[in-house]
Amino acid sequence: MPTFLIVLGGVILLMALAAACTKPASVYRHQPAERNPLEGKTVRFVADESEPENADGVRGHLEATGTADRKRSFYDRVCKRLLDIILSFLGLVLLSPVFLALSLWIVIDDPGPVLFTQKRIGKNKQFFRLHKFRSMKMSTPHDKPTHMLENPDQYITRAGKFIRAHSLDELPQIWDIFIGNMSVIGPRPGLWNQDLLTAERDRWGANDIRPGLTGWAQINGRDELEIPDKAKLDGEYREKESFAFDCRCFIGTVFSVARGEGVVEGGTGAMAAKAQNGDGAGDGEPEQQRKA
Predict the structure, then answer these.
(1) What whole-number distance in Å separates Cα of residue 15 and Cα of residue 21?
(2) Does the structure show a pLDDT above 50 at 183?
């Protein structure tokens, strides 16, 4: 037993040091040009057809309207963060064989980096680096969401099809939870240039909490939902945030993943497209391919 405790203590210490060392870079602390100028502010979306199309498929930009000043609950500040640390630590340790197996499969299937990063929007609109297992080929066009690619299926690897279908590409985000950029439960973090989604979430106060690995919107349609509907569900989660509601979301996610619900290839709003077209073409989650 003493030996086990010593080893466990050593593992915890090493992981804590690694988290402390990687956290600054993960939120662009030493790269002012990469940080969000709207961090900590409330915003609205201003449509402008003269601007480039963003990841939501619309043209326009965000405009600051004030300062976000929501007071966080004791559960959100202390209890939930403590649970996130415990659960993410256990997940990283217990799932390490799965991480290793998937890493080998990804490299054998399509040689290249195992992980890739995306600039995402975190709590109070702070940009951070989100990690995923690479599910797309190295030849995939960079900086373009999957749902905006022509025939995205041609770019997904064999390993990628499996890990995306079972949401295994999200597993590296357990590390993002451990270092404090994400939570187990919360709104899914939007891409840095999903301006419409960011503005809609501001209407419901959903940008004021840490984004999550899964959340209320994910068990009620995931990215098949239209942006206003997704943002409203994220706001509903923010209002009901509690241990009991987090448990409900977690259990709902287990059943949703087991049934393969909400996993479609094509992007936000695929539910409406499916209803119109009679098929399930879509994307589980817009991805911006970047070499890591």
Answers:
(1) 10
(2) yes
pLDDT (tens digit per residue) in 197-214: 999 999 999 999 999 999
For 35, residues 6+ apart whose C-beta sits below 8 A from its C-beta are 27, 28, 126, 127
φ, ψ at 43 (rounded to 5°): -140, 165
In this prediction the pTM is 0.85
In the DSSP assignment, the letter for residue 170 is G
DSSP E strands, the chain? 41-47, 60-67, 115-121, 127-133, 183-185, 212-214, 265-266, 281-283
For residue 201, give the nearest of 236, 248, 243 by alpha carbon. Answer: 236
DSSP 282: E
Report how far residue 168's alpha carbon sits from residue 163's, in angstroms, rounded to the nearest whole number.
Answer: 5
- The first and second tokens of residue 135, run together, are 């599910």
- Dist. CA 227–CA 90, nearest whole Å: 33
Residue 60 pairs with which residues in a beta bridge? Answer: 47
